[in-house]
Amino acid sequence: MNKNGVRIIKWFDKRPVYMISTSRRHNATIIDTGKRRKVTEEVIRKPECILTYNENKKGIDYSDQMSSYYTPLKRGLKWFRKVMMELLFGTALVNSWVVFNWKKANKLSKKNFCESVIEGLTNKPMLATVSANPRIAKLTKNHIYEKNGDKRRKCVGCYINLRTTMDSREANKKVKKIKSHCVDCNQPMCLKCFYDRHV
Predict the structure, then answer these.
(1) d(CA 197, CA 182)
(2) Which of 1, 47, 69, 179 is 20 to 30 A from residue 32's alpha carbon, by CA?
(3) What is the DSSP string of 24-90?
(4) pLDDT number for residue 147
C-alpha cells in the first residue's frame, strides 16, 4: 500500500486475480467465507476485497447477461458504434425492462418487452412487420425453384424459424447451408421453405 492508501493485491484462485483497492481494511490476509468445497470439504477462504467485490457486482453481471440476449451488436461494427449500440439497446433497454417489471404483477420477458418497445416506436404490430418482409412474404406470382446454385448459402426460411427460439448468433450457427434458391425472390431456400412460402 502506498501513502495515499491505494493497495494492490494479487490472489490466486483458479487463476491469478489482481485487485486495486482504496479501502484500508483490505489487507493481504484471507478470511473464512463460511462455505466448503464439495469434494474435499475444505473451507473456502478469500481476501476481504474479493468478497466485497463479489457481493456488490451481482447487478452488473445480471445486466451484462440480460443485454447479451437479443444483442444488437454485429460483426464488423466500429468500436465506437458498438459502445453506442450497447449503451442504447443493451444497458438502457435492460434498465428500462427491470424498472418496468419492478412493481408489475404480470412481468414481461425481455423478448416481449423489446417487441413492445419496437411496436411503440414504429406504430406497427410485430406480426404485420414480419408479414410485410419481402424475404418471407407469400407472393401470388409463380416462383421457380432452382436446385443447383453457384455456392452454398444459408436458407432464409430456416433462419427465420430458428430466430423465433434463439438469438441471431445461435441461429447463424445452426441454420443449414444449401445451394438451392428461389429465382424470383433471389433468396436461398430449401425445398420445404420454398413450398411453405410459395405454395
Answers:
(1) 10
(2) 1
(3) TT--S-EEEEEEE-TTT-PEEEEEHHHHHHHHHSHHHHHHHHHHHTT----TT--HHHHHHHIIIII
(4) 78
Inter-residue contact 152 to 179 (CB < 8 Å) = yes
Residue 51 CB neighbour total at 10 angstroms? 14
Q: What is the pTM of this model?
A: 0.44
Whose CA is closest to 199, among 142, 136, 133? 142
Q: How far is CA 44 from the centre of its chain?
A: 32
Instruction: Give the Å distances, CA to CA, from 120 to 113, 116, 128.
Output: 10, 6, 13
Type of residue numbered 166: M
**What local confidence, expressed as pLDDT, does residue 47 receive?**
82
Strand-pair partners of 145: 182
Long-range CB pairs of 68-72 (<8 Å, 24+ gap) are 69/110, 69/111, 69/167, 70/110, 70/111, 70/114, 70/167, 71/167, 71/168, 71/169
Other beta carbons within 10 Å of 69: 14
Q: What is the DSSP letter of 128?
A: H
Residue 106 identity (one-letter amino acid): N
